[in-house]
Amino acid sequence: MPTKYPAINQIAYTKMMHMVPVYQTEQIRQIEEHIFSLDPKPDLMELAGKTVAELAIQVTPNHARTVLVIVGPGNNGGDGYVTARHLKNANFHVSILALLDTRQNSPEAISALNKWKLTGGTIQDEINNRDSFDIVIDGLFGIGLTRNLTGKLEELISYINGLQATIISIDIPSGLNPDTGNIMGCCIKAHHTVTFLGYKVGLHTGLGPDYSGTIHFSDLNMGRIISPDNRGYLIGNDVLDNVLTPRAKSSHKGTHGQLVIIGGSAGLVGAAILSGRAAIKLGAGRVLIGFVGTALPAIDWMQPELMMRNASDVIQLNNTTCIAIGPGLGIDNIAYDMLSKVLLLPVPIVLDADALNLIAKHPALVALVNSRCDPTVLTPHPGEASRLLNCSIMEIQADRLQVALALASKFNAEVVLKGVGSVCAFPDGNWFINTTGNAGMASAGMGDVLTGIIGALIAQGAYSHTALLAAVHLHGLAADQLLGDRCGPIGMTASETIDAARIILNKKRC
Predict the structure, then answer these.
(1) What sign results for the dihedral spanned by CA atoms 248, 252, 253, 254?
(2) Can you identify the CATH homologous superfamily of domain 253-509?
(3) Which of 146, 307, 329, 337 is the most buried (most CB within 10 A)?
(4) pLDDT for 449-467, tens place per residue?
């Protein structure tokens, strides 16, 4: 198989990007083992509980005085005892609920429990439904949970989620799978989550963002400890700082690339136009839209800078620096023939929408993708990913990280698996999770805009790895800006994100 991507240590994803690691459970365990081997052994439980208590005081209303701490049998429960002790010392009225056998506790958790008792603290095994609480501290389960929560635990979590209280989870909401973001039977729905030592995958993708609330990170005074086999990172805002080089005053439209967009079959013209509008406003010097079939608009009156052509004409043009194909392409024979020709061209290609659906249907197209020597970017949503891997959407969403990596490996391509916590994966095995965006993006045309942004950045000369990360992050930032301006989430449109993205990118470049 051709090698078309340099190793990460040869050319960085982006020279100035601060790489914020994100981990799976096995890697967190490696970090913990390293820390526990230190002499003297640091008291992580005391540091964690004190951190949670300080956050609780910081984020809850001044009138908040009553606290319920729910504890489990593991170290999360020990963190809960420490949190309770510090809040009690700060003159909060603290109740601890322990439904499970405390004899299973680790030595550290038993020590924390004994210190709680020395303050005069007590433990109860049931809740009086007449009690009310201002704060709930979730110390039930952490990253070690391996079973679905049912029975009394399910009833407890349902009760907690129904309280009019500020809910703070320790390390990860109880019931959330730390590696996938899936729910293990049921899950605490936190307003805040204080996570320790390293960010967890499940907090940022799948259902994790819906259950984690605001995520607060603490290294527990251990500094930055990176697992030796770590390959995952969060995308940071600084990815935008150098995705493009500053423009010279003497530059002209030819300096900033020529992007060709192919799609827009009958009834789907708008998809290609949205991609084109995004591309021209995100800086591509020239943008041509090649329409398939007979659906060829004379002009886009909203964006007359776009050049309208037949698809068969645009693929023969010289000086094209990137091709994006798929928005509104269709899956008929004409679309198949066009995609086959495009995949043979020696330029970077962004594959979206029906281009992905065609590849999923035709093994010959898969072979063409794999034989390419120039960068190839795939932008599937879960439905398209399910077709590419011949599995169900449920299987895709069950482990989004591994699916993205599987796609990158199968197609020797750069991949963004779109959705909450979009996962970007690369053939070298490195992966990134995006943390921007909001529910307003659940709207038609958003994927077409993202395709246009990716294509525009690549067309202008951005390294394709960086272009993908920057475009995904920027698109989410644009939606977040609109949300902050009260233009969403209800009724947010794909078109609106284009102008917002342009403003943000120009601010970063100034």
Answers:
(1) negative
(2) Ribokinase (3.40.1190.20)
(3) 329
(4) 999 999 999 999 999 999 9
Q: Topology of 28-233 in CATH?
A: Rossmann fold (3.40.50)
Low-confidence ranges of the chain (pLDDT < 70): 1-18, 102-104, 295, 509-510
79 Cβ partners below 8 Å, 6+ apart? Answer: 45, 48, 49, 52, 112, 139, 170, 171
Per-residue pLDDT tens for 315-358?
999 999 999 999 999 999 999 999 999 999 999 999 999 999 99
CA distances, 63 to each of 59, 60, 67, 166, 169 (Å): 12, 8, 12, 12, 21
Q: How do the domains of the chain map onto residue ranges?
A: 28-233, 253-509
Structure tokens at 156: 């407890």
Contact assessment for residue 352 and residue 288, using Cβ atoms and an 8 Å cutoff: no
* Tokens coding 342: 């495009």
Query: How far is Cα 330 from Cα 337, in angstroms, rounded to an integer?
Result: 11
Intrachain domains 28-233 and 253-509 with the same fold: no
How much is the pTM? 0.92
Here the tokens at position 212 are: 């984690």
Q: CB neighbours of 242 closer than 8 A, spacing ≥ 6?
A: 14, 15, 16, 466
First to last CA, the chain: 41
Question: What is the crossing angle of helices 44-59 and 75-89, to 10°?
Answer: 50
Which ranges of 199-260 does DSSP label H, i.e. alpha helix? 201-204, 208-212
